[in-house]
Automatic annotation (TrEMBL):
Any one of the GO CC terms: phenylalanine-tRNA ligase complex
EC code: 6.1.1.20
UniProt family annotation: Belongs to the phenylalanyl-tRNA synthetase beta subunit family. Type 2 subfamily.
Name by which UniProt lists this protein: phenylalanine--tRNA ligase
Organism of derivation: Anisodus acutangulus
Residue ranges of every copy of the B5 domain listed in the record: 304-384
Reaction(s) this enzyme catalyzes, per UniProt: tRNA(Phe) + L-phenylalanine + ATP = L-phenylalanyl-tRNA(Phe) + AMP + diphosphate + H(+)
Main localization, broad class: cytoplasm
Compartment(s) of residence: Cytoplasm
Top EC category: ligase
Keyword presence, Cytoplasm: yes
Cofactor: Mg(2+)
Length: 592
């Protein structure tokens, strides 16, 4: 989860109260966040520079590092934290965020050209009027952009934020996509004019910006925003122009968010304007901007439409496990910035119509509302009780039974990775490439390329890593494999398998064969003659992972459910195992 660093004294000033460290830690816990660390500015600098600790005298301002939920974007700055904690503590009402009521003809306009669809097709905008910045507020404004870029914006790949001094530029604005050689401007914190392609080379040595270059670097066109005088506002998602840079003297802020995901762009814009509209001349009022696309369609942003959700009282109390009166639930939701109005359905069931404000994009489902009620009520105040007995799934019961039976035979259970490399399920087992395996897209390592189709590689790898362990080694695993299945809605299916391996001075083939008989005895299945479909029998197998003539297939009620045998020496060599091994693998679900 993201960690937000805020100055303790500034935070307490915003909260209108002071706390000792333990009291503030308790407040954070009640609200559902965590005071992760208490440090100082100089201590942070020493840690970054790997310097030794010095005396604590005059060590600068005390810094609270607060861990917040990853989906609570409104808590990523001091303003949002202080506002949420004041409402939670009953000191402030829930603010009402307003879009200034002006006609579309009077609005600033952003015109979007067709070519932007090739690279970053969406843009949303808004204006904060009459903002009063000081150094602390200004730094918090910049920090929130950085935290959003790292979080919901996914390092600017989904959304990139641009902020500009509106008094230095003039609308209407245009959002275009042009060849890099046609874009010229002076970037932020520079004095020289650059072409966009030159700028890419220039920023390859910049520690902060070089990690964003790949987003547009290989595109034939780059996104760019101009004002009516063809002054470049920004080259998203890389850098803003120096001409419209905001400063402590800025009074009117123009905010634009270009994106590949419109939903996330709206969340980011709403977060920026709701957090810092508190500093506007008219508190919590935001001026809208009209965005017009090349097909003639136009939209007005920011979108502050309230999302309403019907949540039954019985649903909330059922999840929490505490019976609460209606007024109490409404009061608890108010502490979490959710307005709730009681309604009664035709069947006389009490429900709440919950209004979700633009700051709470994390509330998507009635279970989120119930969670907020539980947080406001206090997790420590919820009575402890034993959960009602739940009947386990038959497959889980059967798995536990098999674990017990094999463990009683002297085998030790192991758990291995469900992901493995392609070669571990193919060439290392003397097999052709397995086309039934689910492949991991964009795998970061060759060790985890596919989802396993067999438990064999994991057990062999375990023995290979423990070959110096006293012999014999007797291990087993009960776990899932994944096979491609076009009839399934997700294109693949899980199957529960059981595998056992014996490694010692001799092959132990008879012990593995005995495990097969023990499993069948535990399931009440009799050994029958080949061709009889009322029980189980074994027949010759041709599996390349085993020695020829020293392996067998297990046939259960006419269906092949597994194989056992002595592992082929070439396979043992691939897994660096010097001793002979015997192995068994069964599809347990077939036994159900």
């Amino acid at each position: 989860m993201p960690t937000v660093s805020v100055g303790r004294d500034r935070l307490f000033e915003a909260l209108g109260s002071t706390y000792n460290d333990d009291e503030f830690d308790e407040l954070c816990f009640k609200f559902g966040i965590e005071l992760d660390d208490i440090t100082t500015e100089k201590a942070i600098q020493r840690k970054e520079k790997h310097l030794e600790e010095e005396g604590m005298e005059d060590d600068g301002e005390t810094i609270y590092k607060i861990e917040v939920p990853a989906n609570r974007y409104d808590l990523l700055c001091l303003e949002g934290l202080a506002r949420a904690l004041r409402i939670f503590s009953g000191l402030d009402p829930i603010p009402t965020y307003k879009v200034v009521n002006i006609g579309t003809d009077s609005m600033l306009e952003m015109r979007v050209r067709t070519e932007t669809s090739k690279i970053r097709p969406y843009i949303v905008c808004a204006v904060l009027r009459g903002v009063t910045f000081d150094e602390v507020k200004y730094n918090s404004f910049i920090d929130l952009q950085d935290r959003l870029h790292q979080n919901i914006c996914r390092r600017r790949t989904l959304v990139a934020i641009g902020t500009h001094d509106l008094d230095t530029i003039e609308g209407p604005f245009t959002y275009e996509a042009l060849p890099p050689a046609q874009i010229n401007f002076v970037p932020l914190k520079q004095t020289k004019n650059f072409r966009a392609d030159e700028l890419m080379e220039f920023y390859k040595s910049d520690l902060k910006l070089k990690k964003f270059l790949h987003i547009i670097e290989n595109s034939p066109v780059y996104p760019v925003i101009y004002d009516c005088k063809r002054t470049v506002l920004s080259l998203p998602p890389i850098i803003n122009g120096a001409h419209s840079a905001i400063s402590l003297k800025t009074k009117n802020v123009f905010i634009e968010c270009t994106a590949t995901d419109l939903t996330k762009a709206n969340i980011v814009l709403n977060t920026m304007v709701t957090m810092f509209s508190v500093y506007c001349e008219r508190k919590f009022e935001i001026e809208p901007v009209k965005v017009t696309y090349s097909d003639g369609k136009s939209f007005v942003y920011p979108d502050f439409s309230i999302y309403k959700m019907n949540v039954p009282l019985s649903y909330i109390t059922g999840i929490i496990g505490v019976q609460l009166p209606e007024d109490k639930v409404a009061s608890l939701l108010h502490k979490m910035q959710l307005r709730a109005e009681k309604s009664v359905s035709e069947d006389k069931e009490v429900k709440f119509v919950v209004s979700v404000p633009p700051t709470r994009s994390d509330v998507l489902h009635p279970c989120d509302v119930a969670e907020d009620v539980a947080i406001a009520y206090g997790y420590n105040d919820i009575p402890k009780r034993k959960p009602a007995s739940l009947k386990p799934l038959p497959l889980s019961q059967f798995s536990d039974l098999m674990r017990t039976e094999i463990a009683m035979a002297g085998f030790t259970e192991v758990l291995t990775w469900i992901l493995c490399s392609k070669k571990e399920i193919s060439s290392m087992l003397n097999r052709e490439e397995d086309n039934s395996a689910a492949i991991i897209a964009d795998s970061r390592t060759s060790e985890f390329e596919v989802v396993r189709t067999s438990l064999m590689p994991g057990l062999l790898r375990t023995v290979g890593h423990n070959k110096d362990h006293p012999k014999p080694i007797k291990i087993f695993e009960v776990g899932d494999v994944v096979l491609l299945d076009g009839t399934n809605d997700v294109g693949a299916v899980n199957r529960r398998h059981l595998a056992a391996l014996y490694c010692g001075a001799n092959s132990g083939f008879e012990l593995i064969h005995g495990i097969v008989d023990k499993i069948m005895e535990a399931t009440g299945t009799n050994f029958v003659s080949p061709g009889n479909s009322t029980g189980y029998y074994i027949e010759k197998s041709e599996e390349p992972a085993f020695l020829q003539g020293r392996q067998a297939s297990v046939i259960y009620r006419g269906n092949h459910i597994g194989t056992f045998g002595i592992v082929h020496p070439q396979v043992l060599k691939e897994f660096d195992i010097p001793d002979p091994c015997s192995f068994l693998e069964l599809d347990m679900q077939s036994l159900l």
